[in-house]
Design brief:
The complex is a heterodimer of chains A (about 100) and B (about 250).
Chain A (H helix, E strand, L loop, with lengths): L4 H21 L3 H26 L3 H31 L13
Chain B lengths: L2 E2 L2 E2 H23 L3 H21 L3 H26 L15 H22 L20 H10 L3 H22 L3 H5 L8 H14 L5 H12 L2 H22 L1
Antiparallel strand pairs in B: 1-2
Helix pairs in contact in B: 1-2, 2-3, 9-10
The chains are: A mainly alpha (about 100), B mainly alpha (about 250).
């Protein structure tokens, strides 16, 4: 008998909270993206856990789609970072105050 | 005899080790001053998650997790970090918004406690128990059933995903491409210099470029002829990390 789902869900919740703290606390845009990846992984872990609990393959299919969306998001996000860096030489979110009044 | 609290001991040990690895990797991402170290801590977390997938009999997803996340996404992160030259220490202590960090930590801790308390007392799942078939339906492996569900039940979503990937690739190419005017002006300096000049001028006026080196390089590129213009047009790209170092 393997570990019950409660442990996995608790671990996923803590991982999601760590990712959220990272997004709010860090200023480097790249590290903020990594923290978004942490949150996506927490969601993936929850999906797989419920897939096992309910005996439904749909949860694993959803994880597959989350992987694809995460890859696309990272590609576009890093493209934006490169484009911004080329104009402003700014790697932290605080340097991007172009719309400040 | 190797059953403790209804759980086999190897499973418990695996879960414990993986939980420690995942959480330490996540903490490493948050607290590391160097972006490269953060990316390597992210690899640690992703591997821990992959092992937890195996522990829950999602073998295909574990392999995909390692290949796509650790093999592609983290390498992309590292590539951009090296490309931009931001792999130096960031001052984590600096706090532009006073009190934002303690507030963020406290609010997230409250939310986490709320979620844990709710999930400890409430009913987890409602609704239909099974939509897309069992994980091991028909005596097949999870890989077989996953592929079957993706190409039957979720076929439309799969097609949309293909479109999404194409759009993302095109968008990334458009975003990361060097601005066309910097490349175009060098061979056409004799003939097409006049129509291109206003574009260059408007860019120089619109975008406040930090760092004296890159701004000076663009100014030279405007006035200089063929060879000097090509040289100066290439200089801003190489000069950006240096000016970034100055401005940090």
């Amino acid at each position: 008998m393997s570990i019950g789902p409660a442990w996995y869900l608790g671990l996923a919740a803590v991982l999601f909270a760590l990712g959220a703290v990272g997004v709010m606390v860090r200023r480097n845009v790249l590290v903020m993206f990594m923290c978004v990846e942490l949150m996506l992984n927490a969601a993936n872990l929850t999906f797989v856990t419920f897939s096992r609990v309910l005996g439904d393959i749909g949860g694993q299919s959803l994880v597959f789609f989350v992987l694809v969306v995460a890859a696309a998001e990272v590609v576009v996000g890093l493209g934006v970072v490169v484009a911004i860096f080329r104009r402003r030489a700014a790697a932290t979110a605080d340097d991007l105050h172009g719309m400040k009044g | 005899m190797n059953v403790l609290l209804g759980v086999t001991v190897p499973d418990a040990i695996t879960f414990g080790i993986c939980a420690v690895v995942v959480l330490s990797g996540a903490i490493g991402v948050i607290v590391s001053r160097n972006a490269v170290h953060a990316a390597l801590s992210l690899v640690l977390t992703l591997f821990g998650i992959a092992v937890l997938f195996i522990e829950q009999h999602a073998y295909f997803l574990a392999a995909v997790q390692v290949i796509v996340y650790a093999g592609a996404i983290v390498v992309l992160f590292l590539f951009v970090i090296m490309f931009l030259g931001v792999d130096r220490e960031e001052d984590v202590r600096a706090e532009p918004l006073r009190g934002q960090r303690p507030l963020a930590v406290v609010l997230t801790a409250i939310s986490l406690a709320g979620v844990l308390a709710l999930s400890a007392t409430a009913n987890w799942v409602t609704g239909a128990h099974r939509v897309a078939g069992g994980v091991n339906a028909g005596g097949h492996t999870d890989t077989f059933n996953l592929g079957k569900s993706i190409f039957t039940t979720y076929l439309w979503a799969f097609e949309i995903t293909a479109a999404l990937l194409v759009i993302a690739v095109v968008g990334a190419v458009v975003l990361a491409r060097r601005p066309a005017r910097a490349e175009d002006e060098e061979p056409a300096a004799d003939g097409r210099a006049a129509p291109l000049a206003p574009i260059e001028g408007s860019q120089g006026a619109g975008g406040p470029i930090e760092g004296g080196a890159s701004a000076g390089g663009q100014g030279d590129g405007d006035e200089g002829d063929g060879a000097a213009g090509a040289d100066a047009a290439r200089r801003p790209a190489a000069g950006v990390p240096a000016s970034a170092e100055v401005s940090r």
